[in-house]
Specification:
With about 375 residues, the chain is of the alpha/beta class. Helices cover about 40% and strands about 15% of the residues. Helix 7 links the parallel strand 5 (about 170-175) and strand 6 (about 190-195). Bound molecules: ligand P1T.
């Protein structure tokens, strides 16, 4: 694929060309679990679908092109992708992770990898000096979400990429919330990007998947080994669905952001709302970084209601278009309660210290008409 093509063009064409046999314009779904060999070890590039599969390879090429990376390694979920990255570490290695991460990522580090001997420090990464202070001789990895889940704090990828470079360690950025439409961490100095493709990349809430992108050949080799050895691979059908979703990713992201921005301004002036977390609002603590690092401020809004848990509960059962459910990034709007849903696996005292209060709600703003979404929120808040 030509390197000079625009992002929107790559989203439709990267890794894909009409089928040489049939001329089919859309990539086929190669369901075969195994591939004929002319003689043992002599084949046309595919042996067995856990090891490699044509539809999966197309997806890996396409997302790698969108993130500006050389290698894509796809997994059965975002969590499996994160686990593979952590699986490249050895007992005694140290990871510094931003304090506000998806509850499942916190659980993976705290309950699966820490008992295996991986040391984990949780740090507020909005200040570089906090990360510098947490470095140890055995630090191998900096792990960042930006915007963070659920408080939408931003972390300066370029500064951390520089720090990782000077320390000879790797920077991993979970780009699920921003997508490569809004920011491309590999181009800012990250060594690997991880996605839950379950979210915006697929965009239609009908796939669970994950992927890692990297230019680091040694890391890619380890990840491909784990992809095959552990076998947490996505089905060809799921790969096809994500490829299909990617074709409209740039259009969808622009609309998600436009509507979310308008709703964030509306919520910010609502008397029932105590605080709105949205990187596009000038009062957001990292608003200046948002304008520098992201092309648009994203489709997620988190807000704190007056009235705590009771108000949050009432709100979640009162909205109609905003469906009460975990997950995000689909065409439909969702609302959830981090303290009891996505971040229930984070201990209560850690949640309290971070500001994940009982009155906090998170909105994934979908592609419905903005006036309908605003009316839904207005009715529920009333
Ligand atoms: O659900 P899965 O595909 O395994 O992805 C895990 C994951 C990784 N990284 C981020 C930033 C995520 O938000 C998630 C999953 N998050 C939700 C299900 C949620 O509602 O926040």
């Amino acid at each position: 694929m030509r390197a000079d093509l625009h992002f929107d063009t790559l989203a439709i064409h990267a890794g894909q060309a009409p089928d040489p046999q049939t001329g089919a314009v859309m990539p086929g779904i190669q369901l075969s679990s195994t591939f004929a060999q002319q003689a043992p070890g002599q084949h046309r590039g595919f042996e067995y679908s856990r090891t490699d599969n044509p539809t999966r390879r197309t997806l890996e090429h396409c997302v790698a092109a969108l993130e500006g990376g050389q290698q894509g390694i796809a997994f059965a979920s975002g969590s499996a992708a994160s686990a593979a990255l952590l699986g490249t570490l050895a007992p005694g290695d140290h990871v510094i992770v931003c304090d506000d991460v998806y509850g499942g990522t916190y659980r993976l580090m705290d309950k699966v990898f820490a008992p295996l001997g991986i040391e984990v420090s949780r740090v507020d990464m909005t200040e570089l000096r906090h990360v510098e202070a947490a470095l140890r001789p055995n630090t191998e990895l900096l792990w960042v979400e930006t915007p963070t889940n659920p408080l939408l704090k931003l972390v300066d990828i370029k500064s951390l990429g520089w720090l990782a470079g000077t320390e000879g360690i790797r920077l991993v950025v979970d780009n699920t919330f921003a997508t490569p439409v809004l920011q491309r961490p590999l181009l800012l100095g990250a060594h690997a990007v991880v996605h839950s493709t379950t979210k915006y990349l697929n965009g239609h809430s009908d796939v669970v998947g994950g992927i890692v992108l990297t230019d680091d050949e040694a890391l890619a080799r380890k990840l491909r080994f784990l992809q095959n050895a552990v076998g947490a691979v996505p089905s060809p059908f799921d790969c096809y669905l994500v490829l299909r979703g990617l074709k409209t990713l740039p259009l969808r992201m622009r609309r998600h952001c436009e509507t979310a921005h308008a709703l964030a301004i509306y919520l910010d002036s609502h008397p029932q709302v105590a605080k709105v977390h949205y990187p596009g609002l000038p009062a957001h603590p990292q608003h200046a970084l948002a304008t520098r690092q992201m092309s648009l401020p994203g489709g997620m809004i988190t807000c704190e209601l007056h009235g705590g848990l009771a108000a949050a509960r009432a709100m979640l059962s009162a909205t109609e278009l905003f469906v009460c459910a975990e997950s995000l990034g689909g065409v439909e709007s969702l609302i959830e309660h981090p303290a009891s849903m996505t971040h229930a696996s984070v201990p209560a005292e850690t949640r309290a210290a971070l500001g994940i209060t009982d009155g906090l709600i998170r909105l994934s703003v979908g592609l419905e008409a903005e006036p309908d979404l605003r009316a839904d929120l207005e009715r529920a808040l009333r």
